[in-house]
């Protein structure tokens, strides 16, 4: 999935009177690696900068105290170009775009040529006539992002589902109801075949589950305990078994919290990996 950038977020109508907040947002967009600029928007932005004399002449990118960082950020964004493969369409934009006609045309071409592959646009509510949480380009509805640090919910959902795609989910406590199994698949992409459920109640401890939990694999297995449905001794046994295999047992206090708990954990693990990758890239 692709999240694009509104060209008017990079070049406002009066380039020479932009305030510090504008440039801070440019720097933040550059740091948000999930944001890309469409092929047509790229050419429109470059044309605006060229009209100002860049790169042949000096252009003041941002306040003097961090102009170099601002210029580097702008150039970094312009290096992340995404070109759609579908045939562009002439569509109606809803709500009305308040930027220039040329910038609007660039957005229409970029978004319709990406089709279902684009799920969000980083923009500013001031660029739209009464924008809500989403924007519509013909039949394509996409999320409106106003905070560069916030990833699109669809992109976040896709990453979480991908994270669980090759994992096995070991649940201790409660019972494997159709409602919970359906929620696991709908929200996290976890199929019933991926779930190993040790059913248990406080008054009815599980039987013959020690061997399975004694063979958990850190690179494959996720362990979670529904603490509201097991006794303390069963919880303790499960925690020790998981830890002995190098797996940290997650906890939730009710069956309805299994999906949210797994979702939060996956997001945290994904964020850790991204930070580690960024640190490794910077060191290299």
Total count of helical runs of at least 4 residues: 10
Tell me, rounded to a whole number, the average pLDDT.
Answer: 89
In the residues, how many domains can be counted?
2
Number of strands: 11
- Output the strand order for the largest sheet: 3-2-1-5-7-6-4
Chart the SSEs and their pairings.
Blueprint: E1 2-5, H1 7-10, H2 20-31, E2 35-38, H3 39-51, H4 67-78, E3 81-82, E4 93-94, H5 101-114, E5 118-122, E6 134-137, E7 140-145, H6 153-164, E8 168-172, H7 178-188, E9 195-198, H8 210-213, E10 221-226, H9 232-244, E11 250-252, H10 258-283
Parallel strand pairs: 1-2, 1-5, 2-3, 5-7, 8-9, 8-10, 10-11
Antiparallel strand pairs: 4-6, 6-7
Describe this structure in words.
This protein has 284 residues and is α/β, with parallel strands linked by helices. The chain folds into 2 domains: 2-151; 157-280, 3-Layer(aba) Sandwich (Rossmann fold), CATH 3.40.50. 43% of the residues lie in helices and 16% in strands. It is built from 10 helices and 11 strands. The strands form 2 sheets. Strands 3-2-1-5-7-6-4 form a 7-stranded mixed β-sheet. Helix 3 packs antiparallel against helix 5, helix 6 (153-164) packs across helix 10 (258-283) and helix 7 (178-188) packs parallel to helix 10 (258-283). The relative contact order is 0.11.
